[in-house]
Specification:
Shape: elongated
Pfam family, one: Sulfate_transp
Membrane topology: Multi-pass membrane protein
Mean pLDDT: 88
Subcellular location: Membrane
Keywords: Membrane, Transmembrane, Transmembrane helix
Protein name: SulP family inorganic anion transporter
Strand content: 5-15%
Number of strands: 7
Low-confidence stretches: 1-14
Strand order of the largest sheet: 4-3-5-6-7
Radius of gyration: 30 Å
Length: 576
């Protein structure tokens, strides 16, 4: 079971290939992967159909986006559990991107979806090759919380039309409700859709969980996860038997027979320039979710993933989607959890899922055509409702006004303006908040706790201090953002003490400095020399010491940065 771990440090393309060719992929691993693949396939079919509709594409596009992308990821990816395919948020972003550019249902719209997927794949590859995964740090926790919550709410509201027949246009919250037309309400669709939704919510309730636990025992969790597929099958049978499609109930309709044909997306520089920013946002969202899910599930089984190779795997998956009739894909949390729980041990489980799904497309197409759209809408609402985090956003606002404010502003802008614009504003606010925090570093005057070798803020403990000596601790690196502010703070402290002879800057909280920080320290050293005040830096970390030496900050007095704080304190104490 440790076979995958042993090869994950190897070069590109050697993960799964090495596992098979070296004979380490045995019967036990194969059986585990087959079991997981069967279960994920049953879950993936309705999800793929539903998320294609969210993206504004025909249902078969969801199936196509779940075949070759899974196989491509298996060759490149390193996560045993990550299940790649269409997901709700990326589907919404795809629709928001393409709808202003082409009419839904047209060949032009589908071609744009292919081009978008290929561009997302290219961006994943670039980030993987150049190890740019750190860019995901731009999406802070508050921004992601607000973005995902608001996007999920938009997806849920967008399912009102397929669920009940009530018309509303796509767009932001204001545009949707402005075009609301209750006259299009369809009673049969509503009964079927709302009934399915209530059943799905019931299976997740305490009572539903208790009953399924009694009925299915150790298989209860699996039964609840496969219940949506069972419900869709029952609904499809009822639709066929009662001819509900002739009574106004929308169905998936007859799907094209056979597997997707390979095709090149049309590459137009004008369209590429328009899709560049949306593709980058989809890439950013996708890799943030995928790597987080892969690392979380990998830790459970003690299987290590390589984030940069994951980006290559996701890039290959999106390229495959772009060349096989799909749309942008990424690793989904729900499917990945099911994949892990079902026993997936290697990325081959994903490839087997694609094989089983291909058989489903080849032999089950006539039956899939009877799947009612209202029931698919119900499955989307129930699945996406788990992503609503309004209570935790309220808690975040109480805990930290700035982070909570950023989260709520992001969510509100996503709802009433545009999804991408709300996300970008949230990122900008997070960066500005970070810069503001760096610009105003925490600075404390220290004293020695009696009978110890520990120093604390004189405002927070009873401490001893030395006459004519000031100890200041700066808890921030010295950069162009804060160099001037810190210098002014130093000068202010010096001006308040006319008898000052020794200024000790405790550098335990200073991790590094840039040219601006070094220039400030040089200038400040000269000012202290002119005032006949000795300047020291204590508890200097090795990386900081190297930077100080490289910038020749203490070239004339190298001993000024070689003392631990306690040694310098005792030395100054003995000289008084």
């Amino acid at each position: 079971m440790k076979a995958l771990e042993r090869i994950q440090g190897s070069d590109l393309m050697q993960g799964v290939i090495a596992l098979v060719t070296t004979g380490r992929y045995g019967k036990k691993l194969l059986i585990s992967d087959i079991n997981a693949a069967i279960i994920v396939t049953l879950m993936l079919i309705p999800q793929s159909l539903a998320y294609a509709l969210v993206a504004g594409l025909p249902p078969e596009a969801g199936l196509y986006a779940s075949i070759l992308p899974l196989i491509a990821y298996a060759f490149f990816g390193t996560s045993a559990a990550l299940a790649v395919g269409p997901v709700a948020i990326v589907s919404l972003l795809t629709a928001n991107t393409l709808m202003p550019m082409a009419e839904v249902g047209t060949d032009e719209y589908m071609q744009l979806a292919l081009l978008l997927a290929a561009m997302v794949g290219a961006m994943y590859f670039i980030m993987g090759v150049f190890r740019l995964g750190f860019i995901t740090q731009l999406l802070s926790y508050p921004v992601m919380k607000g973005f995902i919550t608001a996007s999920s709410l938009l997806i849920i509201i967008g399912q009102i039309k397929p669920l009940t027949g009530i018309y509303m246009s796509r767009g932001n919250l204001i545009e949707r409700f402005h075009t609301l037309d209750i006259s299009t309400f369809h009673s049969v669709s509503s009964i079927m859709g709302v009934g399915a939704m209530l059943l799905l919510f019931w299976t997740r309730s305490k009572q539903g969980i208790a009953i399924t636990n009694r009925l299915f025992g150790s298989f209860a969790t699996l039964s609840r996860r496969l219940f949506p597929m069972l419900l869709i099958l029952v609904a499809a049978v009822l639709t066929a038997l009662l001819s509900l499609d002739t009574k106004g109930v929308a169905t998936v309709g007859l799907l094209p027979k056979g597997l997707p044909s390979l095709q090149l997306p049309g590459f137009d520089l004008g369209l590429i320039s328009q899709l560049m920013l949306p593709a980058f946002i989809i890439t950013l969202i996708g890799m943030t979710e995928s790597i987080a899910v892969g690392q979380t599930l990998g830790a459970v089984k003690r299987q290590r993933i390589n984030p940069n190779r994951e980006l290559l795997g996701l890039g290959a998956a999106n390229f495959a989607a772009g060349f096989s009739g799909g749309f942008p894909v990424t690793g989904g949390m729900a499917r990945s959890v099911v994949n892990a729980d079902a026993g997936a041990e290697t990325p081959i489980a994903g490839a087997l899922t694609a094989v089983f799904l291909s058989f489903g497309i080849l032999f089950l197409t006539p039956w899939l055509s009877y799947i009612p759209i209202p029931v698919l809408a119900a499955t989307i609402i129930v699945a996406v409702s788990q992503l609503l985090e309004f209570p935790s956003m309220a808690t975040l606002l109480r805990m930290n006004r700035i982070d909570g404010g950023i989260s709520w502003i992001t969510a509100i802008l996503v709802l009433v303006w545009e999804v991408e614009a709300g996300l970008l504003v949230g990122v900008i606010l997070s960066v500005l908040s970070l810069l503001a925090n760096h610009r105003q570093p925490y600075m404390a005057e220290l004293g020695l706790i009696p009978n110890t070798e520990r120093f604390k803020n004189i405002k927070h403990a009873q401490t001893e201090t030395l006459p004519n000596t000031l100890l200041l601790r700066v808890d921030e690196s010295l950069t162009f953002l804060n160099a001037g502010v810190i210098e002014q703070a130093f000068l202010q402290r010096v001006s308040e003490n006319d008898e000052l002879k020794n200024l000790v800057i405790v550098a335990s909280g200073i991790h590094t400095l840039d040219a601006s920080g070094a220039s400030m320290l040089k200038r400040f050293c000269q000012e202290m020399d002119a005032a006949n005040i000795k300047l020291y830096l204590t508890d200097v970390k090795v990386p900081l010491a190297r930077k100080l030496k490289a910038y020749d900050v203490f070239k004339r007095r190298p001993e000024a940065m070689e003392y631990p704080t306690i040694e310098l304190y005792k030395k100054l104490q003995s000289s008084n």
